[in-house]
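Late entry, written up from scratch paper. The run itself happened at the end of the previous shift, but nothing got recorded in the book at the time, so transcribing now.
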Amino acid sequence: MRPMPISNLKHMKPLSVVLVTLSVAAVSAQAQEIAIPHRNPSVMAALAAIKADNAWTLDQQQSICEIPAPPFKEAVRAAEYRKRFESLGFKSVRIDSEGNVIAERPGIGKGPTVMIMGHLDTVFPEGTNVAVTRTGTVMKGPGIGDDCRGLAVLLQVAKSLNAAKVRTEGTIYFVGNVGEEGEGNLRGTRHLLLKEFPGKIDFFISVDGTGLGVTSRAVGSHRYRITYQGPGGHSYGAFGMPNPIHALGRAIAGISEIKVPASPKTTFNVGIVAGGTSVNTISPVGTMDVDMRSESVAELDRVDASIQQALRAALTSENARWPGRHPRITMKIDTIGIRPTGAQSDGAPIVRAALAAGKALGFGEPTSASSTDANLPISMGIAAITIDGGGKGMGSHSLSESYDDTDRGYLGPQWAALIVAALARVR
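Output as recorded:
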């Protein structure tokens, strides 16, 4: 998406004000205690099928991951993902205008509408070797855990519910979404909740990554691209003019001195620095990408203000360092990503349901806060969580990323299936 100037960002209303409000049905659904149907015969059959069919899940995970899905170029993987849902017997499978794959499993009543998703995109650029190797229970390849595991889990959940003829009151939407990573800025989820299903989703689940944890709270983030610009010139002949890269250095030094609280955890990072044409050229441009995060809206706004102060101070200092008639350098700040934060209690029914489903399967993990597709629905007041997909992962976002299914990897899709069955109300 095209960057938004910071001046425009300041005039935006909070998402909770601008976005659609929850429907009466959603509020009602969220207010009720959710029963876990782990003793329902059809659900038990689905869970048994998932365990017995674990090799199929792993094959899906590997083969999906060997289809490239660079940022903003997820179409090839999306087309294949659509075919896989169709092969499972889904009649209503489509790719929306943003590139999300949507498979509908209609309910048989008027129960809550549940959306469960895994993201199609990776962080890896076009041309990356995405071949996956397997040694025993371990698979290695870019994106194998984040989020090829989530995509495979969705397919297995859909397959097992159909095979066991699990009937739910509510409709379930299985979604392979785009734009979760980096500058994708949750564009797939935004489109789904604001354009495709405004006010229609009662419960939202993202399956993202590995392990058996629940992300119940949203860590918001602000991401900016800062550009210092000037005329540039020869390092000797034009010496004495303000230098955009020197301004960049001043800004980075200032940012590095910012103090943030340990609780609520608040962070900042200069992740990319670029500029320059040669060693003996005063560069006309210096840029950097900055990321800041916090679970607290107030602390996120506070570190944002401190970073902007450091940026302006660097500009002023660099221009003042070289007085005279030289052209001054300027600064531009573009927004490259905003992920909203939002409050959701760990006592919320959807969180308790996820924890209870895990307990029914014999495991328990503490809840956590993170930055995922669930950020947006949580900020809108929609009951939402992100769950892990099972197994054990290492090296997320690296070329050496790995996934170990261990001897209990099947618990990931079992957990997802049990949560979905509970939320959509098994009949």
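The longest helix spans residues 297-321.
(Scratch paper discarded after transcription.)
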